[in-house]
Give the backbone structure.
Amino acid sequence: MQEVPTTPHPEPGLWLVDPSKSTIEFRTRNFIGMKVEGRFTDVDGAVEVADAADESSIRVSIPVNGVDSGSRMRDRDLLKKSVFHADQWPHIRFESTDIRAASHGQFTITGTLRVRDRTRTVEVTAGESQSAPGEHHYTATSRVNPREFGITHPFIRRDVEIAIDVWLERADG
């Protein structure tokens, strides 16, 4: 049986999200079933990597003004009070509370997600897809119910799938 090469995990220490390469995308369907997609590209975050996954931590901040759904009109709607209420809560924040190694290089990350004035526990499934000297690439997925975060826009009635694509760089260069 041929051994499958594994991607080396980051060395212990502080790793930063590279905002020039990282995105967080969302997908849902509106009230009549039409697909709605968008992305946030201005992702700020850090991962404190420990020797053991369960001793590591993740924190992420996403400016909601960076939303891009492919429609300026829709983007303006998303920033209004009924969705992100960007004037009062300009960032979406995530902070891990537990990181567990799963099978085949996957991780289950539990953490608190704050959207607007509501904080909920969410679970993210993540895995490293590739690395290069001094950087590591991870993808992750999750699903959230916007109503749990106080999003009351009448057109947003379904769960939102989140696809995370981040590149980490060593903080000390």
Observations:
- The chain has one domain: 13-170.
- Residues 89 and 116 are 5 Å apart (CA to CA).
